[in-house]
Amino acid sequence: MYQVLARKWRPQSLDDLVGQQHVTRTLRNAVEAGRLAHAFVFAGIRGTGKTTVARILAKCLNCERGPTASPCNECASCREITGGRSIDVLELDAASRTGVNDIRELQEVVSFAPVRDRYKVLILDEAHMLSKSAVNALLKTIEEPPPRVVFILATTEIHRILPTILSRCQVFEFRRISPREVSGLLRKVCDAEGIRVSDATVERIARAGEGSVRDSLSILERVLAFCGDEIGDEDARLVLGGVRTEALADLTRSMADRDAAGMLRVLDGVVEEGHDLVHFWNETVSVLRDLLLARVLPGREDLLTRSAEETASLEQASRGLSREDLTRAFHIVADLEPALRSSSQPRFLFEAALVRLASLGAVRPIEEMLADLEAGGTRDPEPTRSSPTPAAASEKKKADPLSAPGPAGSDASRFLEAVRRDRPMLGAALDQAAAVEVASGSIRISFPAAREVMRRVTEREENLSFLRSCAEAVLGAGFDVRVGSSDAAGAEGRGAPAPPRPSAPSTPSGDESPPSPSRPPAGADRQDLLDRARSEPGVRKLLSEFGARVVEIRPLEETPSTLVPPDSVATEDPA
Questions:
Q1: pLDDT of residue 546
Q2: Domain that holds residue 216
Q3: How many Å is the maximal CA-CA distance in the chain?
């Protein structure tokens, strides 16, 4: 008579058990040391070996060669326990026999000594289904059982077992089996059964089992019924209803490109293929989770749920997504599950979530942003980051290109190095100068018109005082520092004075905010100041990375402590 794979390949010893080393090692040591408890609770999801281990433990206790951690599986006691015929090993389905009378009958049975074996073993499957009165009747028996009696309670919902029961038992929590461990078992089964199947399909079946060995073997049985002994990858995908890796890679690539239309096309293709959207949601969450782990824990492929080939394809598609982008995408998709399961229009919800993902702006860690600003805003973003928003790209087109001055001569180089070492921000300002010249006992620093703001910062009295002391320390006494403009019409010496304050405000055009009494006049002068502010490196970095826009300009003498006042930059919500 044909026997299904889940029963045929049921473990018959502790060594055969997959993925529960913490359970097998503890029970093995307890049996060998003779320190066996009288009551156990085996908890875990379906198909992880709870009832199987209960039967193996019964064989360990009652084997003719035992008690032993390695039962022979040949003696009468072992064979009867394997076949479910032992009169001293009783299995009770607590899901169908939940009443107090059933427990009272059980109490009568355990009051007698074992008929033939060393121990009378009582296995209560789905113990959480017992009624309250039945649990109360069982409580005293578990606390003080007759000699040579062992209780084993198996449950998939340990939170429904009363604490008074748990406190009287040794509790073992059976963990979900990893896809890699299940894949190894499935490969072993397929080789022994003469089944030809690719590793990719074996791994897909293992993932479909969701950590349950029994479910994975049952799924393999279903695929065999469709394909026969030679399983093709495409045939297996049709049976399992899995989403093609190419579709998941296209979805990830469109997400990285902020391409809502591309993501919606992928979703439409998935629906056309007949996939359930909850299943597609599960695949999407799994992909985002694997990509996150690959970024956070490189080299730990054992934690991922997909093959190395699939993971490499998905990582290639996600190059435009930072770790922060993946985190936000994961939370948006994960939060979709409850509504997706209960909605009469799940596709609409999925489409809205994908459009929202496409609307999210790129994210970089604030530590990197601050480091860039402190360095003068000259470092380019990482190549894996997403493209800036259209507003930021427009601002970049307006700004002049950055260029660091190339001071000739070792004296100027040593002077600049000293400034950068002691005052990095001031050194970054000097990097924007057109020329730094050392000649005739003086240092002349010239700024172009586009760097007028940097000139004003440099020529502040406290900054000039520091530069003079720095020149004296590096180049010797007697050196003066002069700051000016590199333009022919620019002022010499201390530079041109600040623009005069307006006598009356005027309303700007476009999307700029209305001026306050302290703002410069509207028109060409104000536009010139806006252009200068947008070309300043720190402001350019804010405009590029945060999608901000300049809404107000104030003369430096009104804000002596900061280059751009905090209320002068507005950040647009990238979403």
A1: 60
A2: 179-240
A3: 113
